[in-house]
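Human:
Class, as today's exercise, you are to examine the entry below, and be ready to discuss the fold:
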Amino acid sequence: MRPIPMPEPMPFGGTAAAPSPLVAVSDLKVQIGTDDGLVRAVDGVTFDVPRGRTLCIVGESGSGKSVTGRALMNLLPPSGRIAAGSILYAGRDGQAVDVTQLDPRGRQIRALRGKEISLISQEPMAALSPVHTIGQQLVPVIRRHLSLSKKAAQARAVEMLGRVGIPRPAERLNNYPFEFSGGMRQRVCIALALSCRPRLLIADEPTTALDVTTQANIIDLLQELQREDGLSILFITHDLGVVAEIADDVAVMYLGKIVERGTVDEIFADPRHPYTRALLKSVPRLGSGRGSRLAAIRGMVPSPFERPKGCDFHPRCEAAIKGVCDSIDPGTITIGLRRDVRCVLAREPAVLGGAAHG
């Protein structure tokens, strides 16, 4: 596909120019076929990932976070397809390509995956082959994308393993994944994802299966690598503690839509969507007292085949207005410079019940 010129920095919220985006997603819709019919897994999301910053996408299971991340690589299940929208990726030459228009199995998208955009998945054992050594998995990828000799690629593999904290990296290159602990396997996955010097890293729940100490080490490692290499990171998680630690910007997803987005400070200090507030209230806090109950969100995420009329969240919302929220899709409301909220009460925080941490 012929590259197209990269547009001017896209407005965030329509009132002020955002930092120049590495990736600009507009009205993205992804459908996945099932035995029961088509699922609108991603239902018209718009966001960008600025250069050198971390955007966290947060929400409950089934909100469409992972599908959104994989759509950026046009890496969907066989029954999935991008139904509408655009994903403009700014290349190193200043040109942009619309990822949605590339053949999912074609040469151009395969050149982007790994070299330009890399993915770290939640479960490293699913990402690594159990019957090949770490070197047998790292070296061919490096040779293919960086056009290095076998010796140079092996040296690069050893360098990356050492960089992510694998002891004796030259020796461990000959080990199999089962010879590593869970945390070390995840470090191998990070080395694999970053070995070809990508510009965008998609981290899909990369710390969920790890203990707290290992989780903190992985987050520190990602932040260190970002500072050194100027990485842009799309971090997918349900853990708001991780969001507070790593995010620059936050997008909150619910049932395939982004219901609120803004900077991490705005989201935590002044959440404007009832769903965002409910997520923040459900986070355990020190000093709350033994035996105290968490503020759980009532109900469950609806089936994608039984979407509520009006606002998707209204059946679970404590602030829902009868006759309004159950009949009107609120659309996106812009607040301030870089803030979007999908709620009719977005401009009335007092109606939502005060601060989320109250």
Notes: The two ends are 52 Å apart (CA to CA).
